[in-house]
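Lab meeting prep.
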Amino acid sequence: MKRSWTIVPFIVLFALLFDGCKKAVVPAYLVIPEWQFESDPGQGTSSQKITELWVYQDEQLLGIYSTPAKIPITKLGSSKILIMAGIKNNGISDTRIRYPFFQPLDSTIQFASEQVITWTPTFHYNANVDVEELGFESGNFLVPLPGNNGNFTAISNSNLVFEGNRSGKGVIDATGSKLFYKDDINRYLTAGNYYFLEMNYSANNRFSVGLLVTEATGETKEFVLAINPTQETDGVPVWNKIYVDFGAIPLKHPNALFYEFYIEAVPAIMGNPIEVYLDNLKWVKWQ
C-alpha cells in the first residue's frame, strides 16, 4: 500500500504536466504599426492626437496599446476585433478616455498559431457627430474683452502657420499684462451632453480657456482649463493638439441663455512677452 501511494501522485503529476504541454497555445499576433485619421468634407483638419488604442476581441478587452503595437492573440480561430481610439482628456495623462466622437472599427479575423496579421486602422468621426470648424483662413474671429491689452490677429507667415494659409497669434509685449479675447459666438449647450473643443496650439506661456455664461441674472466667467506652454525651436512654434472637455459647465448652468468661448493669458513673469498660436479650433458634439 505504501508503494502505491508514492507512485500514484508521481504518475498523476506527470500526466498533468504532459497534458498542460499539449494544451499550450502558440499565439498569433495582431500588429498595428500606426493609425490614421480622415476628416470628411466640412469637418476641418485631419490633425488628431490619438494616444492609444483600446483593442477588444469578442467584446473582451485585450489591452490599451500605443503604436506600434504587437498584440499576442491566444484565442485562435474566427474572432471579432474591435479597435477604439483613445485620447488624453484635457491633455492630462491620468485622464485617458475612449474619445466618444471617433467611430470604432471592427473586423472579423481568422487567427492561426504563429500567424502575423497587420492592421493600420483609419478612423473617422461618427456619422451623428456635429463638427463646427473655427479656423483662421478667413481672418481673425476673436474679439477683445475688457481688461485686454494684448493683440490677437490672423498671421500668414508660412514659417509660423500650422497648416493652411493662416493661423491665429496672440501677443503681449513687454508692457502688457493680459491677453483676453472671446469668439463672440453665442452657443447653446445642453446639460448632460458631451462638448469638446479640439485645438492645435503653441505657446511660450501658460494660457487658459473657458466659457462666459450669460444667464438672466448676469454673466459668469467659468474657467475650464489651464494649458501648459510648449517649446520653441529657434523662434519657430512647436505645435501640440489638445481636446478640452467643456461638458461640466452646462451642468452647473442648466438655465443659461448662451455661452461664449474665451482665451486668457497673463505673463508668468511680468514684463516677459507672450506669444500664443492657435489653429483648427473645432467644437465637437452629438447632433
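Slide two material, second protein:
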Amino acid sequence: MNLYRAVRRGTILRTLAGKEPFYWVDQQPGVLELGTKFAQWAVDATLLSESTTVLSVGLGDDVSFETDLINRFGCSVYGFDPTPASRQYITRNVTDPRFRTFAYAVADHDGALTFNLPPEASADLVNASAVADYGTGRSTVTTLPCLTLESARQLCNIETLDILKMDIEGAEYAVLEQALANNWLAGVSQVLVEFHHFLPGLAPAQTRQAITALQQAGFSIAWIGRTNHEYLFTRAVSARRS
C-alpha cells in the first residue's frame, strides 16, 4: 500500500518537490476498508459495534462506506451534505432509518456558505467547494446553510460521537482547527478525513499542520488511501476520554 501510494501519479516526485505530504503507515490488523473503489475509506473494525455513532460530513453521490458500516456493524450514521446533486442522490438511495441525513454543510461557523463549482472539464462535478479558488468564471452554486461541528452534533442529539468522517473539499482545515481548539473531538476515537491540499488555493503545508495537530491530540495515522489524500486517525478509548 505504501509503495503503491509512492509511485501513483508520481507521488514520490511530488513529495520530494514539497507538493505532496507523504507518511508511511504500518498496516494495522484491525483496519478494514469499506465502500466502493470511488468512495473507499477504512476503519478500525475492533472499535465498532451497534452502539457506534458516526457523523459523516460530505456525502456526495456515493454512500457505500456509510451503508457498509450500517449493514455490517449496525452503526448509527448521521450524514450532512446540502449540495443539490447530493440531495437528489440521497433522496433516491438512502432509506435505512439508521442513516439520517441533513441538508447542511459543516464549516467553522453557523450560517451560510457560497459554493464554487469545479471546472467543466473536471472529473468530479458533484463536489463543489466553498474554499477552493477554481477561478473558472462559472456561476456558483446557490448559497447553502452551514453549521459548526458542535452545532451539527447538537442537531443530531448525539451524546457520544465515536467516528467523525469528513470529505468537505478544503473546509476540513478550519473545521479541524476549531474542533481541536474547543475540545469537540473529546469523545472521538476515529477521524477519517480527505485532505484537499491539491485544490487551487490550498497547500500541502495545511495538511501537514492538521496532521500534527491531530497527533498532538493523541491520534495516530492508522491508514492512508491509495490516492494519498484519505486518512484514518485512531486513538485509544482511554486517550479520547482524558
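Talking points for slide two:
The chain has one domain: 2-240.
The chain has eight helices and twelve strands.
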